[in-house]
Structures are given as structure tokens and as C-alpha cells.
Design goal:
With 327 residues, the protein is an alpha+beta fold. It contains 10 helices and 17 strands. Strands 1, 2, 3, 4, 5, 6, 7, 9, 10, 14 and 17 form an 11-stranded mixed sheet that branches. The protein has a 6-stranded antiparallel sheet with strand order 13-12-11-8-15-16, with helices on one face. A hairpin with a 2-residue loop joins strand 9 and strand 10. The longest helix has 15 residues. The C terminus is likely disordered.
Amino acid sequence: MSENAPRPVAAARRPYLIVNPRSGGGKATRFRIAEGARALGSQVFLVDPARHEDLAAVARRAVEDGADLLGVAGGDGTQALVAAVAAESGLPFVVVPAGTRNHFAMDLGLDREDPSAALEALTDCVELRVDLGYAGERAFVNNVSFGAYAALVQDPAYREDKIGTMVRILPEFLARHEGPELLVRAGLLTVDRPDAVLVSNNPYQVDDPAGLGRRARLDSGLLGLLAARAETPAETAAGSRSGRPHGLTHLATPDDVVVHAEVPAVPVGLDGEAVTLPTPVRCRISAGALRVRVPRHRTGGAVTRGWAAVRRLASAVGRTAPGHHSD
């Protein structure tokens, strides 16, 4: 990952770590994250699986009580909730990858196989400035999805096997999804009636239309836009000849990305969590908003592989899809 130069900093005096024991099939419990954090001087809040916790409110109370660092051991959706509070409070933020996929941690160069290694950021650390995305008032560290992508997040199989479910059933979702028609605007670009839309905090690689690989950097100040629609057979053939699928728009932009629909609210996937947002949904990038502390010596994790099947999704369906796609 390319980023602003890491800056050595002193350890926080009153760190506060929110630990979700359910994330990642109990990964925080298996790696004794709460115990490790307490041993390093952090106050720990354990999420009660039996209660609905407003984690943003928990984080704000911690700030009011004098916390000088906020952290989360959990998945990306939980990370985003607390990251927003850290950004608005100007406090540093620590990511402990105790969720299932932890895409944000991967792009920060953290070891997702050993979340306890991230606790080193409480003591021996450097600080990075990274961007934070917003969809309306909701922050996201990875992406927000609409249309078929969002419908996929609602599928119960997705939480158990995100990659497998994406590859297996997204083509069907593209072909049969019957949600509200969308219109996407970003600067001078208009995408009319896409079947699936993904807006990301910094762009994904050009050949990654599902937004499941790495981002080259997290501090570009750009949103990534991926908009897909199922192609007709003629469009698929033309795309094969030109080397560019007609059904896919890929854009990196400093402009807001606004998703319109002729309904008052739409289901979205916000960092993999199923939520509903009022329309139009205005997505923006807040450049350098988040101070992330990471271990001085990051080992990183394995690069996610095997996306060849996903990359062909926009041209794999072969149905007649009305609407206009401009890019």
C-alpha cells in the first residue's frame, strides 16, 4: 500500500478498545484480545451478544471520559462505526482484525491471521493518515454497495462465505434483481439504470469489479466507482473484441458520487452490513480524516486471490438489459 509517510508516535495513555466477541466466529476470544489489550493498559468494552449496542455512543462516552485512542477488535462494519467517532474527535484509531474478512486491515498491511499482533499498535506504533468514506451520514472504511451488490449482502449465505457466495450467485442477482432503478452521477458522468453499484473509499484495482481485492492506497482522496449491468449477447461479443466490457463502469473521482432512485430509501451494503439509507444517497470522501495507528513492524497478510470468475460477472449473464450506460 502506498500512503503518507508513517509517523512514529508515543503510546496512548488512555486507550479504549471495543471488542466484539462474535465477529469472525469468535476470533477475538480465541486470540484472547481483551486480555492482551488490558495487559497493555487499555480499557476494554466487551460487546454483549445478547444486547443491541450503539457502538458509536459507546465510543463517544469513552471520549467524554478521557480516552485518547479508540480501537476496535471486530469486522469492517464495526470498525467503520467507531472510526467515524475517532475522526470527528480527532483521536487516533487502532484496527484489530478480529472479523471474518477484514479488508480494511488487509489494506493497512496488518496480519489478519493473527489479530493479536495488531495490539502492538497500543505501545510500539506509527501513525498513518488515511481517508474515510461517507454515504449520507454513515462512514465506511471499505465500500457501500447498491442494487444487486446490496441484495447479495442481504443473502444469509453471504455472511458465512462472502467470496464463494459472490462468485456463485452474483451473476444470477445481476440477471434477476428487481430492486428500484438507479441513476448514478459523479461529476460529468451519468450511469443510467445499473444493476449493481459499488462506491469505495479509494479505488480498487481496475480488474476487480466486485471490489474484493486490494486497494493500491488509502490516502488518494478519491472515491472508486464500479457500476455494472448485465450485458446483451451483442454487447458481450463487442466487449470481447475491444477488450473492454460494455456493462462495466470503473472510475476514480474526487467528486461526490450520488445514487438516485425513485423511492424514498434503498437497501445498501455498508462495509458488508445490510442497512437502509434515504435517497438520494450522496457518497463523499473525507481525505486524511482518520489517524490510524499500526504496529511499527507490520507483517501483512496474504493477498486475496482467485478473482478471475468475479471479473467476468458483468459479461457473464447475457440478458437484454434496457437502459443507457455512459462513460
